[in-house]
C-alpha cells in the first residue's frame, strides 16, 4: 500500500486522501465493535468481506438509479469513493422488530412490522447516537425539509432493493442503517448513499431457521462472525477467493 495521508479513522474503516480531487480511499478494517465500542475484538477477514459486500450492494443501487458514493473497488480491502459532506444522522429502516425497537416498545423480536419504519439517530458516539425526531433535525439545522423528503425516499428505495436481493437468497432483511452525504455540482446539491452497506450495518436472518448472519453474532456471542459474513457472501455469489485464509495486514499511515 502506498504511503498517503490519513483523513480519518473510525471503528471499522480508515479514510485516506484519494488519487484525484474529490475522491477518498476507504479501507475496511478487521476490527469489530459493539455497544458503542465497549466490546471490541479483531476478526480476521471481516474487512475483506465487508469491502466485497458493500461493493456488491452499492453497485446494485447505482445500477437502479439510487446514487451512492461508490466509484470502484481498488483491492481486497479498499474502495475508491466520492468525497461528500456527511449529514450527521444515521437513518434506520426496520422491517421486523429487533434490537432497540423491541426493548423500547416491548415488541417481541422477529415480529413483522405493518410497514417499514424509518428512524433517525444523531451521529455522536459520545452521546450514544441518540434517537431524534424530524423536529430536532429541523430545529438544529442538520437537514432541511427537502433533505428529509429526499432522505426518506432514498431510504425506502434502498429497503426495496435490499429486501428483494436478500429474500432471493433466503435471508430476511430485518433492519439496516445508512448514512447520507451531500455532493455539489456547481450550485446544485444532491444527496447520495455514503459510508457502507454490509452485515455490520444490517440485521440479516435466515428465512427458514432464523439464524443470525450479521453483527449480532458478535454482540451476542453466537459463534463465528467470519462464518456468518462468509455465508452471506457465498449466497450472493461474491465470496472472495481464499476468504478463510485472510490475514490482518499492517497498516501504513
Written overview of the protein:
The protein has 253 residues and is of the alpha+beta class. The chain folds into two domains: 6-84 and 225-241, Phosphorylase Kinase, domain 1 (2-Layer Sandwich), CATH 3.30.200; 85-206, ATP-grasp fold, B domain (D-amino Acid Aminotransferase, Chain A, domain 1, 2-Layer Sandwich). The protein has helices spanning 46-63, 99-105, 134-139, 145-167, 216-219, 225-236, and strands at 6-9, 13-17, 23-28, 31-34, 39-42, 70-73, 78-82, 85-86, 89-96, 112-122, 131-132, 171-185, 188-194, 202-206. The strands form three sheets. Strands 8, 9, 10, 11, 12, 13 and 14 form a seven-stranded antiparallel beta sheet that branches.
Can you give the helix content as a percent range?
Answer: 25-40%
Write down the CATH class of the largest domain.
Alpha Beta
CATH superfamily of the largest domain: ATP-grasp fold, B domain
Helix and strand composition category: alpha+beta
Describe the SSE topology.
Elements: E1 6-9, E2 13-17, E3 23-28, E4 31-34, E5 39-42, H1 46-63, E6 70-73, E7 78-82, E8 85-86, E9 89-96, H2 99-105, E10 112-122, E11 131-132, H3 134-139, H4 145-167, E12 171-185, E13 188-194, E14 202-206, H5 216-219, H6 225-236
Antiparallel strand pairs: 1-2, 2-3, 3-7, 4-5, 6-7, 8-12, 9-10, 9-12, 10-11, 12-13, 12-14
Helix pairs in contact: 1-6
Amino acid at each position: 500500500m502506498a504511503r498517503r495521508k490519513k483523513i480519518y479513522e473510525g471503528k471499522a474503516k480508515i479514510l485516506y486522501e484519494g488519487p484525484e480531487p474529490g475522491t477518498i480511499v476507504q479501507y475496511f478494517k478487521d476490527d469489530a465493535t459493539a455497544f458503542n465500542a465497549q466490546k471490541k475484538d479483531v476478526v480476521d477477514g471481516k474487512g475483506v468481506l465487508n469491502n466485497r459486500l458493500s461493493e456488491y450492494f452499492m453497485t446494485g443501487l447505482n445500477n437502479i438509479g439510487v446514487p451512492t458514493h461508490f466509484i470502484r473497488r481498488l483491492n481486497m480491502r479498499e474502495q475508491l469513493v466520492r468525497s461528500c459532506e456527511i449529514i450527521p444522522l444515521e437513518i434506520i429502516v426496520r422491517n421486523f422488530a429487533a434490537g432497540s425497537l423491541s426493548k423500547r416498545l416491548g415488541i417481541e423480536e422477529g415480529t413483522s412490522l405493518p410497514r417499514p419504519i424509518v428512524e433517525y439517530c444523531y451521529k455522536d458516539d459520545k452521546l450514544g447516537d441518540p434517537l431524534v425526531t424530524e423536529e430536532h433535525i429541523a430545529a438544529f439545522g442538520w437537514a432541511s425539509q427537502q433533505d428529509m423528503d429526499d432522505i426518506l425516499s432514498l431510504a425506502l428505495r434502498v429497503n426495496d432493493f435490499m429486501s428483494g436481493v436478500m429474500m432471493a437468497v433466503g435471508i430476511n432483511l430485518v433492519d439496516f442503517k445508512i448514512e447520507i452525504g451531500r455532493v455539489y455540482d456547481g450550485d446544485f446539491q444532491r444527496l447520495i448513499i455514503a459510508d457502507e452497506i454490509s452485515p455490520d450495518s444490517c440485521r440479516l436472518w435466515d428465512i427458514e431457521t432464523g439464524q443470525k448472519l450479521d453483527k449480532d453474532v458478535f454482540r451476542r456471542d453466537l459463534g463465528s462472525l467470519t462464518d456468518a459474513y462468509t455465508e452471506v457472501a457465498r449466497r450472493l455469489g461474491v465470496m472472495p477467493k481464499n476468504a478463510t485464509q485472510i490475514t490482518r495486514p499492517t497498516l501504513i499511515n
